[in-house]
């Protein structure tokens, strides 16, 4: 077995590979950019080598620097993770020429299957059903429009070397095809160093179902069941699960055998994934093959018991697969939520900065957290937005959903925004819970975006009661402070009012063994907990049922998060509540005459000039953040008075870009 391997990646996947390497007794080498010098994966590795500046094009995408690091440290093999150079045939070939093993498929397999255009041609030759499209490289946006017209709208414009939602657009008309092609080319060049794109028919109401497979250098192949990745936002996976609620055993067998046949056609070695687009009639079409480890691989590991990273390392070393297709099991149900640094209440805009608190759920047999960050660490603007992957395993789908909901309640993140409230809302959505969804779920269910009103809660009065419990604990502590003047000590009132989300909740409090009974009219909540003010997690029981939520005191409010709902109740006496209701509300400032940066990022383009008349919907500026381009458009007709920020500027949230007359 290898003595030392190098991980040519960063973040959570680098940590994931290191974990398995340590289990196998293999030393690890991390390569890192200057922006990642304090990252968790650097600390976990046995050795670490800096390979350049923050920009991926000057560090993680430079094969020469990675090969030099291998020679410097004596690493015998390279695990590429996903993204960056993981599907670069030239990188795999160069490693082979240098006598360094690539922990992945051979370069010729990557060249045939990793390139989206070449894989389409191979699939056609192998008589695999494929979606109609144009598989040749496209010269420019005008040609892209003509091709799209010939195929028929809607069409998908996709980077040949793409993945992770980068370099991908769906166009429903000529204008969107023209703009989408330009954006795809730009994103693809920045993310992958390859600006080729192709166009294919976009299948309406599709499911995205993929088959995980393994192959070795001795001609042995197995498929490890399927994953359903249909819950996507802007073509990026949000929740993945295995198995799929849509796939039956006969369909699973047919898809798996076709995936293996495709792998055999290119003498595929290592872990790989064949993606299919699946219609409502259970017909399936080859979409592409990912010649690398997938982000969502943990759900497959849970239901099969197979460590995919370990199998990749063993295959690269030349070992035979130690099991056959008959040995592959399907045990229970697994789900993964991608926890991203983005604000779901502001259009999912990126959120960067310091992780003031990072306290994920404790790992246990049925809960797993894959992450590359730590408490006090930083979410950088230079890379993707993933904070962590939260994975659970249940005996069936309903059990997995409930365990994921509970685990999300336990996931504490402060300092930046995360998409946890959105994930929690999805897990309560009746359509998701029924399993009746497709890749259009987000657009169909949230056509106007996502806001706080879309996060349901069965019993908001329960949250008002927990806030009362916390307030009483605070008052009880204040009463015990020594040195209070006689006759002026803090008194404890038992009748209070909770103001929450515009609703008034009169409550009364009485002590019970280990807690309090909070009465609201004819309803009573017996709350038992040993919660203290230092705890962000409130754990205990309510009327005998276990409860876990997040609570913290900020000024007069108690900020509570439960099943994705975020409320800020205030608990006070009836007199104080009546007086507060009479206070005038402070009006927010008028910012309609400014274009503000909605996120931290790099200003790539300002598309207007002072004195220019603009129309609603017109492009004003482009900001790059976390490897994605974000186009800012005018909300109303106006005239540009002043351009305040210029291309190349690093913007903070709410920084002024343009002033209007």
UniProtKB/TrEMBL annotation:
CDD domains: biotinyl_domain (cd06850). Keywords: ATP-binding, Biotin, Ligase, Lipid degradation, Lipid metabolism, Magnesium, Manganese, Metal-binding, Nucleotide-binding, Transit peptide. Its EC number is 6.4.1.3. It is an enzyme of class 6 (ligase). One of its GO terms (biological process) is lipid catabolic process. It comes from the Bacteria. Gene3D superfamilies: 2.40.50.100, 3.30.700.30, ATP-grasp fold, B domain. It catalyses: propanoyl-CoA + hydrogencarbonate + ATP = (S)-methylmalonyl-CoA + ADP + phosphate + H(+). GO terms for molecular function: ATP binding; metal ion binding; propionyl-CoA carboxylase activity. InterPro entries: Acetyl_CoA_COase_biotin_COase, ATP-grasp, BC-like_N, Biotin_BS, Biotin_carboxylase_complex, Biotin_carboxylation_dom, Biotin_COase_C, Biotin_lipoyl. Residues 578-661 form the Lipoyl-binding domain. Residues 1-447 form the Biotin carboxylation domain. Its cofactor is biotin. Residues 122-317 form the ATP-grasp domain. Pfam families: Biotin_carb_C, Biotin_carb_N, Biotin_lipoyl, CPSase_L_D2, PCC_BT. Pathway: Metabolic intermediate metabolism; propanoyl-CoA degradation; succinyl-CoA from propanoyl-CoA: step 1/3. The keyword Signal does not apply. SUPFAM superfamilies: Glutathione synthetase ATP-binding domain-like, PreATP-grasp domain, Rudiment single hybrid motif, Single hybrid motif. This is Biotin carboxylase. The lineage of its organism: Bacteria, Pseudomonadati, Pseudomonadota, Betaproteobacteria, Rhodocyclales. The gene is accC.
């Amino acid at each position: 077995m290898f003595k030392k391997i190098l991980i040519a990646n960063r973040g959570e996947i680098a940590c994931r590979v290191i974990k398995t390497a340590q289990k196998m007794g293999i030393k690890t080498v991390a390569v890192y950019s200057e922006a990642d010098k304090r990252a968790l994966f650097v600390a976990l590795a046995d050795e670490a080598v800096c390979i350049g500046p923050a920009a991926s094009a000057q560090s993680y995408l430079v094969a020469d620097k990675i090969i030099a690091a291998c020679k410097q440290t004596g690493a015998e093999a390279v695990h590429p993770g996903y993204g960056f150079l993981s599907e670069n045939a030239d990188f795999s070939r160069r490693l082979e020429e240098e006598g360094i093993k690539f922990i992945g498929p051979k370069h010729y397999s990557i060249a045939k299957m990793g390139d989206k255009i070449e894989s389409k041609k191979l699939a056609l030759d192998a008589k695999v059903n494929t979606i109609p499209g144009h598989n040749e490289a496209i010269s420019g946006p005008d040609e892209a429009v003509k091709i799209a017209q010939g195929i028929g709208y809607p069409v998908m414009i996709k980077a040949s070397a793409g993945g992770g939602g980068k370099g991908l657009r769906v166009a429903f008309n000529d204008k969107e095809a023209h703009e989408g092609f330009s954006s795809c080319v730009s994103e693809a060049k920045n993310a992958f160093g390859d600006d080729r794109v192709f166009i294919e028919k976009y299948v309406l109401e599709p499911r995205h179902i993929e088959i995980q497979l393994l192959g070795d250098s001795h001609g042995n192949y197995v498929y490890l069941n399927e994953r359903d990745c249909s819950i996507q936002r802007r073509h990026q996976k949000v929740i993945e699960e295995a198995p799929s609620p849509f796939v039956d055993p006969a369909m699973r067998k047919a898809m798996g055998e076709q995936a293996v046949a495709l792998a055999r056609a290119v003498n595929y070695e290592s872990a790989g994934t064949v993606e299919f687009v699946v219609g409502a009639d259970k017909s399936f079409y080859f979409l592409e093959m990912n010649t690398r480890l997938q982000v969502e691989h943990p759900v497959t590991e849970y239901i099969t018991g197979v460590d995919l990273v370990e199998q990749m390392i063993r295959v690269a070393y030349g070992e035979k697969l130690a099991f056959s297709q008959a040995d592959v099991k399907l045990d229970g149900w697994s789900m993964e939520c991608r926890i991203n640094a983005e604000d779901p209440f502001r259009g999912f805009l990126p959120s960067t900065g310091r992780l003031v608190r990072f306290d994920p759920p404790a790992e246990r047999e049925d809960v797993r957290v894959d992450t590359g960050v730590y408490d006090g660490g930083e979410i950088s603007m230079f890379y993707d937005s993933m904070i962590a992957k939260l994975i659970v395993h249940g005996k069936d789908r309903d059990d997995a959903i409930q365990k994921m909901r509970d685990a999300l309640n336990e996931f504490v993140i402060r300092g930046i925004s995360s998409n946890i409230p959105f994930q929690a809302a999805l897990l309560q959505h009746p359509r998701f819970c029924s399993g009746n969804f497709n890749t259009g779920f987000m657009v169909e269910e949230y056509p106007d975006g996502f806001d706080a009103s879309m996060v349901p809660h069965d019993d908001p009065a329960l949250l008002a009661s927990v806030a009362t419990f916390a307030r009483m604990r605070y008052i009880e502590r204040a009463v015990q402070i020594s040195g209070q003047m006689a006759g002026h000590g803090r008194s404890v009132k038992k009748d209070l009012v909770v103001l929450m989300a515009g609703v008034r909740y009169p409550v009364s409090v009485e002590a019970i063994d280990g807690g309090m009974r909070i009465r609201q009219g004819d309803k009573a909540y017996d709350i038992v907990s040993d919660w203290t003010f230092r705890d962000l997690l409130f754990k205990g029981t309510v009327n005998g049922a276990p409860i876990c939520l997040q609570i913290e005191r900020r000024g007069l409010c108690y900020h509570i998060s439960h099943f994705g709902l975020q409320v800020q109740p205030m608990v006070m006496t009836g007199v104080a509540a009546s007086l507060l209701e009479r206070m005038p509300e402070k009006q927010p400032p008028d910012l309609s005459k400014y274009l503000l940066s909605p996120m931290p990022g790099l200003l790539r383009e300002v598309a207007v000039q002072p004195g220019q008349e603009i129309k609603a919907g017109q492009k004003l500026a482009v900001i790059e953040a976390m490897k994605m381009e974000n186009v800012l458009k005018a909300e109303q007709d106006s005239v540009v008075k002043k351009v305040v920020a210029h291309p190349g500027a690093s913007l903070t949230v709410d920084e002024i870009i343009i002033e209007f007359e």
